[in-house]
Amino acid sequence: MRLKDLIIAYQNEKKEWPESPNSLLDFCQYKYNKGEMPAADYRSLFFKLHKEGATSAH
Length: 58
Known about the structure:
mainly alpha; YppF; YppF-like protein
């Protein structure tokens, strides 16, 4: 999954634009924990979002 795909999934589910990289990271973790995202995609997105300054609320 690409970052662009994560943003689209976020918009489709939440009906709003993600307010920050932190929001996307939380959403990414939520999808992974529900089993809706493969581990490889999660790791890739996790590192990309951390590079953008995201910090985890969990």
